[in-house]
Amino acid sequence: MMTMTQARPNHPASIDAPVLVRQAPGSRPDLGFSQVELDRAGGDAIELTRSLVSEQADVFTLGVSGNSMRDAFVNDGDIVVLTATQNVLNGDLIAVQVTGENGPEATMLKHYYRENGHVHLQPARPDMLPSWYDPGQVTIQGKVVLISRQIGRETR
User: Fold this and answer.
1) Total structural domains in the chain?
2) Does the first or last residue of the chain, that is N or C, have fewer Cβ atoms within 10 Å of its Cβ?
3) Residue ranges making up the domain that contains 142
4) Which entry of 27, 110, 131, 143 is annotated as an active-site residue?
5) Per-residue pLDDT tens digits for 61-79
6) Which of 68, 131, 143, 148 is catalytic?
7) Residue 143 known to be catalytic
8) C-alpha to C-alpha distance for 111 and 96, rounded to whole angstroms
9) pLDDT in tens, 123-149
10) Among 80, 90, 94, 66, CA closest to 156
11) Rounded Cα distance, 39 and 80, in Å
12) CB 23 within 8 A of CB 107
């Protein structure tokens, strides 16, 4: 089984977290990654020190496109680092794949809530409405543990 995180042989205290896709938190792209098989985006990776992520964590990164999570300090052009897990708590910021009647519809970054037998995905903007889904319609891809932003970069 391939793991997403690869230890660097010359730097055991650092790991390479693969950059998988450009993530649009408020749009509806089909990014097509799953917990089992991930397609690395051109082999790109970000080097992280192990002090930034759990020793056991399998991590990957997503480039953010869009501003639906701006009030959670996740902006267009940021890179988020996620642990590959489906174990999340209410309020966690996650990457989630939503499936509709015609198969996978979208993968997005949202705050996760489980309420009254449904999954509630909440954007971090007061002008955007939450989405509600049956639990069978969502697959949690990972939990955001770190946000990286280049200072001085213009935002769109």
Assistant:
1) 1
2) N
3) 13-148
4) 110
5) 888 888 899 999 999 888 8
6) 68
7) no
8) 10
9) 999 999 999 999 999 999 999 998 988
10) 66
11) 17
12) yes
